[in-house]
Amino acid sequence: MDMPAKTPAPRALFESSGVKALLDQLDAELVGLAPVKGRIRDIAALLLIDKLRSEQGLQSQPPTLHMCFTGNPGTGKTTVALRMAEVLKQLGYVRKGHLVAVTRDDLVGQFIGHTAPKTKEIIKKAMGGVLFIDEAYYLYRPENERDYGQEAIEILMQVMENNRDDLVVILAGYKDRMDTFFASNPGMASRIAHHIDFPDYSEAELMQIAQLMLDKLNYRFDAEAVTAFQQYVHLRRQQPHFANARSIRNALDRIRLRHATRLFSAESSLSRDELVTLHAEDILASRVFNPTTQGAAA
Question: What is the mean pLDDT of the chain?
Fold first, then answer.
């Protein structure tokens, strides 16, 4: 009597599929977000085991992977969506593994007959990959009877149901607004299988993010600048419109600008160390340290 064929060890399959390398890259790119990364690994495990079941002749049906990413700006939602597209491609769930990121304006038209072709064109571009709709709640505007967003939603729902083996739709935005959106659109809510919340970064994590960004740009803080930037992060997080990693990137751009302005007045040649080292004065000139200054943080 023939013994049933054994499946490959899941761990070996995980590594040979290339998915482990992609998830390791995600770990390196994004600080923190342990719950988010854990969910992505769970989804990868589901797809791998489903693949093994199919190879053994067991009942196998592609799972619904449409998702909702909720959280404040700058918490890594778009980056995770990009990596998710690559993971799905590696596991054979989608054909291309690309990401098409859009907002309401890319889907909803300004006049009758304009929305359907716009939405269908975006869907056509996204087929075989992931369609990422940021601030998806703006698709639905119940206060405006002449709004065409509902037409885009209906087209999306049909495609999400009929083409779920070749397109993953990820809706993203603030959690409270997404909850309201789903309450008003139960058909859309029923098509979302995974809800993943992206927490805000802690001050320590924001410092790690800043360090990663500086390393990529071949800059560094001196000891006094590290202390000054820790103070900056503490103060900036308490101000309005703080956008996590996005605000850190913007802050570093302005710090580099002050550094360049300071060096530009030098009358002698500059050393490599001077070109790469950011000082406390480049940070402390920010309006964040002057509570009497009006306007956006700088």
Answer: 89
Are 112 and 78 in contact by the 8 Å Cβ rule? The answer is no
Measured distance CA(262)–CA(283) in Å, rounded:
12
| CA-to-CA dists, residue 244 to 62, 79, 198, 294, angstroms | 35, 14, 11, 21
Partners of 133 in the β-ladder = 102, 171
pLDDT digits (tens, 9 = 90+) for 13-29: 666 667 788 888 888 88
Q: Determine the pLDDT at residue 1.
A: 46
What is the Cα–Cα distance from 256 to 225, expressed in whole angstroms?
Answer: 12
101 SS3 class: strand
| DSSP secondary structure letters along 251-293 | HHHHHHHHHHHHHHT-SSPPPHHHHHEE-HHHHHTSGGG-TT-
Backbone angles phi, psi at 135, to 5 degrees: 50, 50
DSSP 71: E
- 196: tokens are 């993943």
Two tokens, residue 104: 């309401």
Residue 28 CB neighbours (<10 A): 9
Q: How far apart are CA 104 and CA 172, in angstroms?
A: 12
Separation between Cα atoms, residue 249 and residue 253, nearest integer Å: 6
Give the pLDDT confidence score for residue 43 in this predicted structure.
86
Instruction: Indicate the burial class of 83 (C-beta count within 10 angstroms; 0-12, 13-18, 19 or more).
Output: buried
**Both structure tokens of 65:** 């992977």
- What gap in Å lies between CA 251 and CA 230, rounded to an integer? 12
- What are the residues whose beta carbons fall under 8 Å from the beta carbon of 241, sequence distance 6 or more? 296, 297
Q: How far apart are CA 214 and CA 231, in angstroms?
A: 17
